Amino acid sequence: xxxxxxxxxxxxxxxxxxxxxxxxxxxxxxxxxxxxxxxxxxxxxxxxxxxxxxxxxxxxxxxxxxxxxxxxxxxxxxxxxxxxxxxxxxxxxxxxxxxxxxxxxxxxxxxxxxxxxxxxxxxxxxxxxxxxxxxxxxxxxxxxxxxxxx
Length: 150
Fold this sequence. Notes:
By secondary structure, this protein is mostly helical. The chain contains five helices and two strands, in the order H-H-H-H-E-E-H.
C-alpha cells in the first residue's frame, strides 16, 4: 500500500511560518492588529490544530500516511517559532525601562513647537494665549500621546 502525502502537517507548518513573518511587515500597520496580535495568534492556533491532526494521522496509521519524522521536526520548529514570537511580543516588549524624565499627570509641560495636521508649526504658548470659543482664554491644553508612524 502506497502511503499518502500528509497535507495537514505541511499546511500547519506553512500557516505557522506565515503567522511568524506577517506581523511586522503587514499587521503592525493597522491599529486593530498592531496593539494586540490577535490575527497572528489565530494563525498559530490553526497551525497547532493542523500540526496535531497531521501528527495523529502519521502515528495512528503510519502505513497509510507519511510524516512521522518530518511531522515531528516541523511541529517542533513551529512550536519553537511560536514560542519565540510570544516571548518577544509579550515579555521582551514589556520590559522597556521606565521613563523617569517624562512629565507626570498634572505637571506643567515645557513650551514646545510641533507641526499640526497641515504641517504648520504650532507652539504651546500660542495655543494658551489665543482666545478660544466665545473669546475666552483657555486655562490649559490637553496633550494626547499615541503611537503612530514616525
